[in-house]
Specification:
Elements lengths: L7 H14 L4 H8 L3 H9 L6 H10 L13 H29 L1
Helix pairs in contact: 1-3, 2-3
Amino acid sequence: MKIEIVDSHDIGVAVRAARKAQRLRQDDAAGSIGVSESFLGKVEKGAESVHWGKLFQVLEGLGVRVSVDIPEAAGELFASEELKRYARVERAEKRKTAQGKTDG
């Protein structure tokens, strides 16, 4: 089922519904996902200041997929920015590997 997300409260409703559909208590879901019950509660309440990495960890853990509908004109720019991001990540990983070899 696709729903439109307008604000953080909509994400909270989606997360809570996904958790309840799996008949999981909040503490059990949080434990299996690897976040605190407090954090999961903030997400479900639609708190506007949550850590993005943990939010996506919760979404993935509950099987909630996120997609973004961008204007057609932005599609090519998006692809270009993604390539740049992957190149930056790859360079950082190579530096980390090289540093590990010199430290060891």
